[in-house]
Amino acid sequence: MSGESLNAKYEALQAERARTMAPADLAANIRQREHLVANADRGNFPKPGDVVPDFNVTEADAGPLTSRELLARGPVVVLFFRFATCPACNIALPHYAQTLAPELTARGATLLALSPQIPEKLREIKTRHNLPFLVATDADNTLARHFGLTFLPTPEARANAEAKGNDLGATIGTGSWELPMPAVIVIGQDRTVTFADVSPDWLKRTEAKEVLAALPEVTSAQ
Known about the structure:
By secondary structure, the protein is α+β, with helices and mostly antiparallel strands. It has a single domain, classed as Glutaredoxin (3-Layer(aba) Sandwich). The protein has ten helices and nine strands. The protein has helices spanning 6-20, 23-39, 67-71, 89-99, 101-106, 119-128, 142-146, 155-163, 168-172, 208-220; strands at 56-59, 63-66, 76-80, 110-115, 134-137, 150-151, 179-180, 183-187, 193-198. The radius of gyration is 17 Å and the shape is globular.
C-alpha cells in the first residue's frame, strides 16, 4: 500500500499549481470548488441504508454490464470520477489501484469506477495507468443523478475553460458539461448502501482506509 495518502498528493498538486498557474486561473479553479462545497445539496447524497436501483453501465473494454451481474459476484464499491484527462482523477485512480483494488479483490468485492465520459475516451485512462479494475460509462449520469452527485460548472468556470479552447462537452463525448462530484459508495449484494462519501471539492477525496473499514460490514452480512 502506498505510504502517502491521497489527500497529501492533492495538497502537493495544489502547492504546485500555486507556484505555476496564472493567478487568475488558480483563483477561478478555487472559486469553482468553493462554490460546490457551499452549494452542494447534501440532503440528496446517498447514505447507509439507501437501496440502489438496478443500473446498467458500459465498461471501457468489457462492454455492457448490469448491477445484477456485478452484485452476484459480491459487494460493489462504486467510485465516481470526472473524466479521463482530469488531473485530479489521474492521481486518484492509480492511487486507488495501489491502495484499494488489491484488498477489495481479496475480499471478493468489485471496484467499479464510473464517469459520464464515453467508453472510447475512458479507455485512455484505464490503459495509461494499467488499472486493474472496471472503468465504465454512467451514460447520461444516470446513477450519479440518482445519488444527487451531478453539477454544472459556474458561468465563470465555463467561460474560463472556453477562453482556453477547452470544450468539456467534446471531452466527455456527449456535448454535456454535467459532471459527477467524486464519491465512493459501497453497495452490498442486497443493493443496500453501507458506506457513502461524497467530495464536492474534487481535491479532497475518500481515503482507501475509510472504504476498507466499512467493507467488512458488507462482507459479513452475506
